[in-house]
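Question thread 4412

I'm putting together a teaching handout and wanted feedback from people who do this every day. The idea is simple: show students a protein as raw sequence, then show them the structure tokens that encode its fold, then repeat with a second protein so they can compare. Below is the first pair exactly as I plan to print it.
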Amino acid sequence: MKKVIVLFLLLGFAACQQQQPDPFPTPVLDPSTSVALRWGQMTLSIMYQLPLNTPTYGSRSLGYAGLTMYECVVNGTTTHRSLAAQLSGLTALPLPESGQMYNYPLALNAGQAAILKNLFAFAPTDRLRRVDSLEAAINGEFISITQPDVVTRSASYGKAVAEAIFTWSKTDGGFEGYKRNFDPGYSFPHGAGYWNPPINGQIVSGFPLHPTWGKNRTFAPANSTLPVPEMTAYSTNRSSAYYKEFAAVYTKNQTLTPEEKAIAAWWGDDPTETFSPPGHSYNLANIVVKTAGPNLVKAAETYARVGMAVADGFVNCWKAKYTYHCERPSTYVRANIDPAWTQFWPEPPFPAFYSGHSVQSAASATVLEALYGTSFQFVDTSHQGRPRDQIRKIDYVPRTFNSFWATAEEAALSRFYGGIHTRQDNEIGLAEGKKIGQHINELTWSR
């Protein structure tokens, strides 16, 4: 009898376990929305460990890719309006022929293929072939249910939009930026408090990355007028705010917990190993679209807002970096606190103030909040399946969040844990990113 009862209880427990609802159920996406999602994923597939790609050039590319996606579908709706004549220097874009039928998912399909091949013309041939393969596969899915003339007209329209946006992109200051990542002719200041090329860095370079990127055109005109924020004045006095900022980084690096190390690694996003920091934000857009299941135009709007937000974030951040040429904690700590110190995470090849991770994560979170609310539960799977970091003994385990802003705060904090940014760098980056995202939100998206 006891065996029967135990068996009954075990079966009952198993049944309860099976009936537990999935806390993050994946909606069945509309086929049109699926087209947008697949192109968002393809974009990051191209960017993953892409030689010559950088956070700066990558962010710019995401801005144009997301905008192209949106503009290829916006004229098929009665709820949204084009951003032409709202963005810096973009006066007009091609329009659909009046009275003609279009399949806007096919327009998006053609537009994404065209813009990605233009933006990433330097990518390996096999990656560009993936673009052609996806375009052909999506065409095949819609051809059987779409009249031939509509198929042709829609693809032509999408390509025309993409070509117009790409032509406009050539005048922003960052065109083919991958050809001049490091400028040997750039003269950066030397002395106490100034940036030095990293000893323990992501890559070996004696010059800083894209020193003139801060002069590039922004997408939202309002983001070009943001003043460079002030930073704490240099000092070696132990009671000064400057000293305390760097001493806090040093102290924290002595006592990092396994969880703090995992956070530093999750948001590291070295472009030679991942799809870069802005790619992480764009992947959050992928996850949100997959989780929320919006209609096609909202999905495209999601990519456009995130892409332009991170692009403008990097322009403004680089303006500050090359105004101050501020040193990293490694330089200051070794000169004033501990000559033998090495930070936990490899540092990138450009000045510190303020944090690029912080500004672009905050800008992205701000635009996602505007679209999906301040409370949105999801799992960040960006690095799921990535091999264990054997040097630091860290596994890449997906992370759960209850809001977009929580991702921004954690991304910022990761740089403090990594030993490559002070809290000031991160806090100001978050504040500036929120302003930048708000300016993207303030564009007129709805009719």
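The second pair follows. I'd like the answer to focus on this one:
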Amino acid sequence: MRRSGELVQWNNKGGYGFARDETGKDYYVHISAVADGARPKQGDKVSFDIGKGRKGKPAAKDVVVTSVAVAPISRERQQSTGVSPLKVGLRTATATMMTLLILWAVAFGRLPVWLCLPYAFMGAASALLYRFDKRYAISGRYRVSETNLHVVDLCFGIIGGLSAQEVYRHKTVKPRFVATTWAIALLHLVGLSAFAFGWLWPLLGVLVR
């Protein structure tokens, strides 16, 4: 049975700390037990299973960060650093760029209107899959496979997939998964750019000669 609690102590350099469950009992946590390779910090809310740790003592296993502790940013600090709390992430910016390319291509008649439907439908499906996978990870249930997530993203779901990764802070750490996601995003960006800016038709004309 999974337990919920809070990370009451964390040594970021050493990669270990202690999680306290609802009963007030502390369990040792090692960075290798944290799901998706996430780097937690003190104050984060977590869920975890109990297993054997060092010297056979109980320790937290399969730790999932369910809520991130956010320190309040003062107005003075915002002004001094120049960092906006509404800063848009790279994934959201890329998804927005793809959407604008689609609208641009349709507006200038370089892309059929019906092609918007697969992006809309599969984008929504991809976002839901990421949401479900995040919830399943928190509750310890069966996960959505990474292959399925990539297939849906490749099949026109990449806009929703990138947006969901940003919103749910999910699947943004594992190097291989991130690299594949960006490869899919680049493929769609190039393809949509070719339609939007009219590069595709001259190229096809050269190829058929």
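Top answer:
Good format. For the second protein you could add a caption like this: The chain has a mean pLDDT of 83. The longest strand covers residues 58-67.
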